[in-house]
């Protein structure tokens, strides 16, 4: 996959939002026993390139302990949409104010082997911000260049992904990131469709 250069917030935000709005998103039903969840792909510009915030879950967590993930989690009863779930979880996990996120749209749902249907939500931040990780849910936070997801992956099945500092990004987060980068790479200078 090849990401167009330069890839800045200004060059992508309007084009991506329009493209996500007009594409047919794959929304999956949530059978009994499967948990609805949302994650936020929080895009921000740093050093002239787009990055995403990715969190490392504490090792002791019952589900997904020690794994890298986009901020997010299961839907609460009061959440009116996947957008609300993603924004609420990002605020709880890394202190990202909901009002600072400009939602561009959502990607296709993804089913995990751990019993979740995840709706990935794409949002742009107007500026870089300093995460304040909630230690109950987040051990550390990484700023990961979007271009990372366009690189050749490493590892062996089922742990295929990318080394991120001392951690390794794989699984659902790897799949969501790769899917998103494939959509972005399809957006040429005059191509407004996904």
Describe this structure in words.
With 194 residues, the chain is an alpha+beta fold. The protein has one domain (9-25, 33-185): Nucleoside Triphosphate Pyrophosphohydrolase (Alpha-Beta Complex), CATH 3.90.79.10. Helices cover 22% and strands 30% of the residues. The protein contains 3 helices and 11 strands; from the N terminus they run H-E-E-E-E-H-E-E-E-E-E-E-E-H. The longest helix is centred in the last third of the chain and has 15 residues, at 171-185.
Salient structural properties:
Nucleoside Triphosphate Pyrophosphohydrolase; globular; 194 residues; alpha+beta; disordered C terminus; 3 helices; three-stranded antiparallel β-sheet
Chart the SSEs and their pairings:
Elements (H helix, E strand, L loop, with lengths): L8 H14 L12 E12 L2 E8 L11 E2 L2 E3 L7 H13 L7 E5 L3 E2 L4 E9 L15 E6 L8 E3 L2 E6 L2 E3 L1 H15 L9
Parallel strand pairs: 1-7
Antiparallel strand pairs: 1-2, 1-4, 2-3, 2-8, 5-7, 6-7, 9-10, 10-11
CATH architecture: Alpha-Beta Complex
Order of helices and strands: HEEEEHEEEEEEEH
What name is given to the CATH topology? Nucleoside Triphosphate Pyrophosphohydrolase
Level-1 CATH class name = Alpha Beta
Radius of gyration: 16 Å
Low-confidence stretches: 190-194
- Classified in CATH, the superfamily is Nucleoside Triphosphate Pyrophosphohydrolase
- Structurally, how many domains make up the residues? 1
Based on DSSP secondary structure assignment, what is the total number of beta strands?
Answer: 11
How would you briefly describe this protein structure?
With about 190 residues, the chain is of the alpha+beta class.
